[in-house]
Amino acid sequence: MAIPLGLTGAAQTRARIEEERAKQRRTDTGNSTSPDTTPAKPKSGPATLTKELQLNMEQMRAKIGNLAQTNHYQIGLTLSKALKDHFEGSYPEEPDLKEINKFISQKLIYLCSEATLPVSSYATAEVKDNFMGIPQEFAHTRLYTDMDMTFYIDDDYTVLRFFEGWMDYIGGGNSKKLGEPAAGSDTDTHIYRRFNFPDNYKTQTLQVIKFERDFKKKLIYNFINAFPKGLTAIPVSYGPADLLKVTVTFNFDRYVVSREVVPNTKGTESIGGVIPNINSPDFSKKNVTNSTGIVFKKQQ
Question: At what angle do helices 158-171 and 81-90 cross, to 10 degrees?
Answer without folding.
Answer: 120
